Amino acid sequence: QVQLVESGGGLVQPGGSLRLSCQASGFTFSDYYMSWVRQAPGKGPEWVSVIHSRADVIRYADFTQGRFTISRDNAKNTLYLQMYSLTFEDTALYFCARDLSWFGGNVLDEWGQGTLVTVSS
Questions:
Q1: In whole angstroms, how far apart are CA 109 and each of 97, 100, 101, 119?
Q2: Which residue, 55, 60, 83, 98, could crosslink 64 as a Cys pair with Cβ 3.0–4.6 Å?
């Protein structure tokens, strides 16, 4: 049974930083691309970033503007998203997802429950 469990969300002030984690189980983590996707209140899902199985290919959505860094530890079956310089517009539920598409975000077959990031002063 595939499980993806996100953690690390919370309340942060504008300009602050957060590191999200996603613990994977139930499949061979190192064989798969993994993505982060977010959903802001009242909006649809928005792809954030993808990392390939050996981290040899990494892609980001334009809005990240160098503020986000995706990484993975295959030995720990864990995906990360380090976020800096957070703004109000980054407030969202952040999901990790197993990604079947090279470019990222097109075919997401397994999702976690999400971790909430709230940027507020």
A1: 7, 7, 10, 29
A2: 60
